[in-house]
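Narrative of activities, Objective 1.

The group set out to show that a structural description can be obtained from nothing but a protein's sequence at a throughput compatible with the screening campaign. Below is one input-output pair from the validation batch, recorded exactly as produced.
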Amino acid sequence: MSKTAAIKAIGIILSGYPSAESFDREGYVKISVAALESYPDDVLALMADPRRGIIRQSMFIPAVAEMCAFLDAECDRRRRIAEQNERDRQRALPAPEKAVDPERRAYFADMLRKTTQEIRARNGDPMKRDHVSSSVELRQMAEVWLQREKMNPRPMPQISSGLARVLGLKL
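Output recorded for this entry:
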């Protein structure tokens, strides 16, 4: 948003056109600077960039209207990106309202570890068997777990309907 950035951008653009020698450079620069000085400096620098700027789009020295159209399009593109980022930020999932009780988590982790050890001691390592044996083992684990729950009732963790079907449980 400075006059210097606008002058620099116009100078770079004019240096890209060999036919710029034969016209009133001073008048063109004054009019262009007056029209472009309100744009942000980084957008002016993008317009003057020979790799991505207006020089890539125009075969002749660009009119002030062409430069303003280029800058308006870039400012509009940046505004849309900022709005989309804001919408994405607002749609982000909220943080969980309550944490899992560490005591409950430790109880179920300990129960699962003990049950797994018992079944492995009885049947061997499940990773060395096929899928059917592993689901049989999973069913056995659930049965042991349910027996323990009957002796010491605590809230059971949520399980999916697919897992319940594999285990033969009714939810």
